[in-house]
């Protein structure tokens, strides 16, 4: 009976994950929707070579790596800290209210949330209104290269950190409460409890989520950056996903777009294997 409960999940992955992998073939073809996969010409690594030799490859690859690293370094710890803080709130109604407030942005699409960010950072937005109170001139934040990456990282943290903290809150709930009682009897303060009990108790969860995060280091998603960037910041904001959308999809070069997507997936798979192996070697948990 327990195996029967697995069938819907297995069917989902087979239908929506494994069967579509047949479409990877078009990365090695000059695919035409009218000819189909069977009738399109096989061209080998032509589209991969074109991507790697494109003048824009270095720029979009560098931007993708940098923004991913910034999100990883500055964004990954935020849900952990948020979960630790929410876990320490003992007033139940206040705890639930704060959880709801930090979860809400996740349910907004980037079209809506990006619009809010654009409005807030516009010359007549709230941020420039605050700067005006201190006698400062308005700043076109989204038109300055030095601000763009920071805006992308901060807006992503504001939108997703609350939702990401749910997993850590669930992991914290599974920590043995008797460990905290023993620590208090030994005179441990709250910081000691967090450092020696809570964080070690959720270490495996942190490691697993970090491994999964590394697997998508080249896949930032097109929606956020596409909503926020403009020609003035292409040099620092154009990433692989927006490049593929602009060159591969709007020009209907489906084979080229598939080739770049396959490249991203292969790099992600390699990073997952490496990070999983390092995690197990140094005594941590892993995905397998």
CATH superfamily: MetI-like
Percent strand: under 5%
Mean pLDDT: 89
How many extended strands?
Answer: 2
Global geometry: globular
Task: Give the number of domains.
Answer: 1
Q: Architecture, CATH level 2?
A: Orthogonal Bundle
Q: How many strands, what sense, and barrel or not for the largest sheet?
A: 2 strands, antiparallel
Secondary-structure content class: mainly alpha
N- and C-termini, Cα separation? 25 Å
Question: Are there runs of 5+ residues with pLDDT below 50, and where?
Answer: none
Within the CATH hierarchy, at the fold level, what is the topology?
MetI-like fold
User: Number of helical runs?
Assistant: 16
Order of helices and strands: HEHEHHHHHHHHHHHHHH
Q: Cα-atom Rg, whole angstroms? A: 23 Å
């Amino acid at each position: 009976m327990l195996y029967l409960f697995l069938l819907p999940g297995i069917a989902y992955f087979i239908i929506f994950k494994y069967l579509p992998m047949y479409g990877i073939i078009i990365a090695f073809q000059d695919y035409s929707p009218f000819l189909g996969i069977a009738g399109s010409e096989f061209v080998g690594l032509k589209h991969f070579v074109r991507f790697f030799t494109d003048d824009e490859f270095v720029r979009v690859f560098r931007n993708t790596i940098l923004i991913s690293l910034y999100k990883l370094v500055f964004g990954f710890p935020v849900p952990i800290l948020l979960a630790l803080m929410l876990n320490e709130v003992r007033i139940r109604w206040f705890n639930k209210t704060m959880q709801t407030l930090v979860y809400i942005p996740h349910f907004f699409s980037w079209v809506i949330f990006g619009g809010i960010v654009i409005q807030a950072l516009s010359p007549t937005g709230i941020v420039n209104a605050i700067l005006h109170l201190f006698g400062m001139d308005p700043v076109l934040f989204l038109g300055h290269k030095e601000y763009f990456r920071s805006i992308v990282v901060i807006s992503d943290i504001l939108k997703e950190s609350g939702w990401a903290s749910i997993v850590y809150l669930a992991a914290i709930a599974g920590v043995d409460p008797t460990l905290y009682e023993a620590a208090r009897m030994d005179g441990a303060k709250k910081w000691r409890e967090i450092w020696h009990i809570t964080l070690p108790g959720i270490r495996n969860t942190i490691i697993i989520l970090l491994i999964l995060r590394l697997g998508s280091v080249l896949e930032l998603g097109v929606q956020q950056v596409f909503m926020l960037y403009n020609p003035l910041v292409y040099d620092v904001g154009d990433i692989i996903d927006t490049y593929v959308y602009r060159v591969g999809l709007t020009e209907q070069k489906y084979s080229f777009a598939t080739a770049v997507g396959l490249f991203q997936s292969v790099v992600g798979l390699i990073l997952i294997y490496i990070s999983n192996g390092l995690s197990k070697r140094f005594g941590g948990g892993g995905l397998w």
